[in-house]
Specification:
alpha/beta; eight-stranded parallel β-sheet; twelve-stranded mixed β-sheet
Length: about 260
Amino acid sequence: MSVNIDPTARVDSKAELGDGVSIGPFTVIEDDVVIGDGTRVGSNVIIATGARIGKGCRIHHGAAVSTIPQDLKFAGEKTELEIGDATVVREFATLNRGTKDRWKTVIGANCLLMAYVHVAHDCLIGNNVVLANAVNMGGHVTIEDYAIVGGIAGIHQFVRIGCHAMIGAMFRVMKDVPPYILAGQEPLSYEGLNIVGLKRRKFSPQAIAAIKSAYGCIYDSKLNVSQAVEKIKKEITLTDEVKHIIEFIENSERGIVGLRQRQN
């Protein structure tokens, strides 16, 4: 299968393009770039040095991929940006490569990054993640598999977002968002379980019940978070999901989002 490069595109001779790759008009591909089989790159895209792009991806018009970090500490070190197979990057998204802290930014497989998304240096994004239009994140953010972030959300540097969590649109994410929950309001708060998402992904009723019990200890009791975690360990069946909740909270450095404050 041949490679299709528009005559107006500029592709460095050191770039590695897989079978069936197509490059659109006025796109620039720099050196030290690897693009997997079947990936299609639209018009006016820049794919800069250090990009490692998987198979079957779609990168739309005007995207900037693997450009240098917006970090004053960056000193030109050789770093990378990885994108997994079948991920879609929509118009004008900006994806920066890493710094010497992690040496790379990683975006997983089967993700959807909508228009104007910004992924900063050293972020780690899992598989099957959806970032809606104009989600903007600081450096060193971690987002686990199957998380969804609503449009125009701002994510503070070093924040972690757990798997299967869903965050509403236009909120500031200043603290860690634990797995399997819905988060919304200002300040960002626990709004319940992501029940629809969990059912769509075939979580069993028993797994969902255990997750609900764990978050009941954390958010519906009068215990502090540390006390709630100890209660979970002693009184709730430690399914894989519950173990992950405990591990996520125990490893949180910014603290987790709190319970929504009810209006009188």
